[in-house]
Design brief:
alpha+beta; 2 helices; 2 strands; 69% helix
Length: 94
């Protein structure tokens, strides 16, 4: 696998990570999204600890992932059902 080392910064802390070269853009976009969400929470809410902001940010993204996973599952089941209906129609015609 073609890998690349990235230097990323989340909440002003630097990290060095290794990712697939093909995923570099996705990782950089994810880092930007995390930092933006952290800034948004910091502007709108009062937290005693930075960990609280990170926890709320993690909850936000995890909730989004669960939502999209559920929607994808529904779409896959719907598509499979429709494909089976189409197959049955074709079988009837043959």
């Amino acid at each position: 696998m073609d890998e690349i080392q990235l230097n990323i910064t989340i909440m002003e802390k630097a990290y060095k990570i290794t990712v697939a070269r093909a995923d570099e853009g996705k990782v950089r976009k994810a880092v930007a999204m995390i930092n933006e969400m952290v800034k948004s929470y910091a502007r709108h809410y009062t937290f005693k600890d930075v960990q609280d902001i990170l926890a709320m940010t993690a909850l936000h993204f995890a909730t989004s992932a669960v939502k999209y996973e559920s929607e994808l599952s529904y779409d896959s089941q719907h598509l499979e059902r429709k494909l089976n209906e189409l197959k049955d129609l074709l079988d009837e015609q043959l």
